């Protein structure tokens, strides 16, 4: 279900961006205001573009979100402050905690809006460390920061 929600949000974002680009081009008089003159196939191009964007949106959550495990030796009492410190340093605040699963979200409202509220990082405790799940680039950045902090 989470995959479908992310794909729908990404589809809406793609369509809004594409619409804004077309509107800006029309307002700047770079292209004609008639859709049939802008695109080779005229109005048929609109459903073709929408279908292409749906394909991209359907694929994106598969590659845009990831899981990664980080080895962090020590007990919960020793490692949780380290996790809190790393998350705070990267602009995350704790959202929830239950049964060894922590959820963090971005503090910045602007960042949350640009990411369509898909900024949650879930941290799960494993025997040898933590598993991080969320947007790929953030998970990689946080995993590396957690590794570095645990080695100090």
Rounded to an integer in angstroms, the radius of gyration calculated over CA atoms is 21 Å
Unreliable stretches covering 5 or more consecutive residues: none
Distance between the termini: 39 Å
Dominant shape? elongated
Order of helices and strands: HHHEHEEHEEH
Give the overall average pLDDT: 85
What is the strand content? Answer: 15-25%
* Secondary structure category: alpha+beta
User: Helicity, in percent?
Assistant: 55-70%
- In terms of quaternary structure, the protein is single chain
Largest sheet: 5 strands, antiparallel
Beta-strand segment tally = 5
How are strands sequenced across the largest beta sheet?
1-5-4-3-2
- Per DSSP, the total helix count is 6
Describe the protein's architecture and organization.
The protein has 152 residues and is α+β, with helices and mostly antiparallel strands. The protein contains six helices and five strands. The chain has helices at residues 2-27, 35-38, 44-64, 76-89, 109-114, 136-151, and strands spanning 65-71, 92-98, 101-106, 121-125, 129-135. Strands 1-5-4-3-2 form a five-stranded antiparallel beta sheet. Helix 1 crosses helix 3 (44-64) and helix 4 (76-89) crosses helix 6. The radius of gyration is 21 Å and the shape is elongated. The two termini are 39 Å apart. The model has no long low-confidence stretch (mean pLDDT 85).
Short structural summary:
The protein is α+β, with helices and mostly antiparallel strands and 152 residues long.
What keyword list fits this structure?
6 helices, elongated, 5-stranded antiparallel β-sheet
